[in-house]
Amino acid sequence: MKPILIASDHAGFALxxxxxxxxxxxxxxxxxxxxxxxxxxxxxxxxxLLAKQISQKKASRGILICxxxxxxxxxxxxxxxxxxxxxxxxxxxxxxxxHNDSNVLVLGSGFTTEGAAKKILDAWLAEKFEGGRHKxxxxxxxxxxxxxxxxxx
Length: 153
Hints:
The protein is an alpha/beta fold. The protein has one domain (4-152): Ribose 5-phosphate Isomerase B, Chain: A (3-Layer(aba) Sandwich). The chain is built from 6 helices and 5 strands, in the order βαβαβαβαβαα. The protein has a 5-stranded parallel sheet with strand order 2-1-3-5-4, sandwiched between helices. The longest helix has 20 residues, at 133-152. The model has no long low-confidence stretch (mean pLDDT 95).
């Protein structure tokens, strides 16, 4: 099984450290891509590192954390095959796995307590993609990615 990637900027650092411990307690292999301090840094760098590996299928799941979660979502969703979802509730985490086959969970440390983040993460990890009509929609997303990729070349 491939490790779960996790990364944050300085604003998400403290929550990232707690979630890494939470994942390890659940005996889930993780790979921490940084940041490794609370010193000010730029979130796009860490979102790029994680999303690139997901896009290249070097990992199948990832977690990104910044203050709002919005910046990380913007960066990660620029990569083909990445379906990053900002989740502020357990219900959203469940639905994004069931309907969107989300492979990157994005959390906003300024809007999510440690307890809520753990519940959101656990729900996201536990849910399965439902397929069916949702697969048809993911196939449409893949076609859009292919069309956009062809235009960029």
